[in-house]
Specification:
Layout lengths: L11 H26 L8 E4 L2 E4 L12 H17 L12 E8 L11 H19 L5 E8 L7 H12 L6 E5 L6 H12 L4 E3 L12 E3 L4 H13 L7 E6 L5 H14 L9 E4 L14 H10 L3 E5 L5 H11 L8 E7 L9 H9 L2 E7 L16 H14 L11 H27 L13 H8 L4 E2 L2 E2 L3 E3 L2 E3 L15 E2 L1 E4 L12 E2 L12
Helix pairs in contact: 2-3, 3-11, 3-12, 4-5, 6-7, 8-9, 9-10, 12-13
Length: 527
């Protein structure tokens, strides 16, 4: 006889068991899913803020696709440096290394101060310098990638992490480079880095009031650019009918400072009070339609101005030139000079389209610059160290898409020189401290420079009446620093070429070369 079992009703114990099984399955599924995805688009060391990966890493991460191959190349070089520092068991240092961080955006949008083209050329320049430094003797270098957001506003977690890495005993962070743009956020960044005692180099900072105790600049500042333009104009006064066009964005430290500098040097002579117009630039988040130049162009035509000073960013200049072309030459009777300052000639200023607009407006760009495109052809006395840079950079250019005329905007060259300045200070410090520590009969591990050692090397007075004893000879010229309290760590001896586009005079008629200088003997700068 078969007995049928009647199912008993479920009690609290049975329901609890089922719930526990369900929760466990959910946890397992989540872990499996996470494992399938890996650490996420930003990797283990970065976190996502506002759509950007933010933090500090030696590894590749999800940046703008157009800079992805360069990010991967830096990560590969970093991995090689780490391998070379360890024996097969991974515990004994063979080639000591230190770290330099590249703190800048790695993504961009229409309101960013740094375009994608600028980012990839800057990264290519820094990578060129890293590879060059790692090809020699002495310590090797990891180039840490330190993205702080496309608008430079996520700098706080980056600075905190950099300060931690500076305390590493085996491979310390000894400096930061890459700070790209003069903004209020940048000002807070360099102040915070200085509070942590980290020497920082701004490759393309030009606003003359962007200063902090540990912040060094390799580019000339706006005041120095203006002095180079003043020297140029002294021999070419024309009719001195001037006009100032200025960016009205309150958040743009660079444009505001440039306007003040232009007014100081040229305002009275060229009557800016009665001859000026403003526009809203495309860099920033202030409200308003950018690049409206109708008022400026109409006033320039009415006043028959022959010399226009542009106090704005290069990315807004093509729109201004286009609007000038629509008005033609306004029966001026003379060619219009568009005076600007900057790191170089942004490639959008020399496209066939922009060149045609310049001809239709009978206008010439006069640029006080950090670099001269004629240097790439061996003309206009190129700096002696440019050849070494070109050898390695040209190989990178063939391997990565860097866009048209990748050297003309100056970013690759200036980012190379900024990294090289820190690496040169590390090499000199490394030699000094280990030579002084060497005593007969005493052997031990070599001493590794710290951020404090590197800072003290950078601020050693280099310029005197007897010459420049420790100037760095970079791809864009020579750089020296005169110590704290002298000139806010702006480079001394940096050449400031005047570039005309479209080219005007022959080489023999070039104006004298202006050099950044303060103190000592003007003959002290190396040729």
């Amino acid at each position: 006889m078969l007995f049928r079992r009647h199912p008993r009703e479920w009690g609290p114990i049975e329901w609890a068991a089922v719930l526990a099984l369900a929760l466990g399955a959910g946890v397992v599924a989540a872990l499996l899913t996470h494992g399938a995805r890996g650490p996420g688009r930003c990797g283990d060391e970065l976190r996502e803020l506002g759509g950007d990966c933010v933090g500090v890493t030696e590894h590749a991460f999800d940046a703008d696709p157009r800079v992805g191959s360069l990010v991967a190349a830096v990560a590969e070089e970093n991995a090689r440096v780490r391998r070379d520092a360890e024996d097969p068991e991974g515990n004994a240092a063979r080639i000591p290394y230190v770290r330099i961080a590249l703190m800048m955006p790695f993504t961009s949008d229409e309101s960013s101060a740094m375009t994608t083209d600028m980012i990839r050329r800057a990264l290519a320049g820094a990578l060129t310098a890293q590879q060059e430094a790692n090809s020699g003797s002495g310590p090797h270098y990891q180039l840490l990638l330190a993205p702080d957001g496309r608008n430079l506003d996520h700098w706080r977690p980056v600075v905190r992490r950099l300060a931690e890495l500076a305390g590493d005993k085996q491979a310390p962070l000894v400096g930061v480079t890459g700070i790209p743009s003069s903004t209020p956020e940048t000002r807070r960044t360099i102040a915070a880095l200085s509070e942590h005692g980290i020497p920082t180099v701004g490759p393309v900072i030009t606003a003359a009031d962007m200063n902090a105790g540990h912040f060094f600049k390799t580019s000339p500042n706006n005041d120095q650019f203006a002095r180079a333009l003043k020297q140029y104009l002294a021999g070419r006064p024309e009719r001195e009918k001037g006009f100032l066009v200025w960016d009205n964005r309150s958040e743009d430290v660079y444009s505001r400072n440039l306007r003040r500098v232009f007014e100081k040097h040229f305002g009275a002579k060229y009557d800016f009070k009665g001859h000026n117009s403003n526009f809203t630039g495309s860099s920033g988040t202030d409200k308003g339609i950018p690049q409206r130049f109708t008022d400026a162009v109409q006033k320039i035509c009415t006043a028959r101005s022959d010399t226009v000073f542009f106090a704005g960013r290069d990315q807004d200049l093509p729109a201004f030139i286009k609007r000038l072309a629509q008005e033609g030459d306004c029966s001026r009777g003379s060619r219009l000079r568009l005076l600007k300052v900057g790191i170089g000639l942004e490639p959008t200023l020399t496209t066939p389209e922009t060149t045609r607009w310049l001809e239709e407006a009978r206008a010439t760009i006069i640029d006080a610059s950090s670099v001269d495109p004629a240097w790439w052809q061996g003309k206009h006395d190129p700096p002696r160290a440019l050849g070494r840079f070109r050898d390695r950079f040209d190989r990178l250019e063939r391997a990565h898409e860097l866009g048209a005329r990748p050297l003309n905007d100056g970013y690759a060259v200036m980012y190379h020189d900024a990294f090289t300045l820190l690496a040169d200070a590390v090499d000199r410090t490394y030699s000094d401290i280990n030579d002084s520590a060497g005593k007969p009969g005493k052997k031990g591990p070599e001493l590794i420079p710290t951020k404090n050692d590197v800072y003290n090397t950078l601020i050693n007075p280099t310029i005197s009446a007897n010459g420049c004893s420790n100037c760095l000879r970079g791809a864009a010229g020579s750089y020296g620093f005169e110590g704290p309290g002298v000139n806010d760590q702006w480079a001394v001896c940096k050449p400031v070429p005047i570039v005309e586009y479209p080219a005007g005079r022959e080489a023999g008629e070039r104006p004298p070369l202006y050099r950044t200088f303060r103190g000592g003997d003007k003959g002290a700068c190396p040729a």
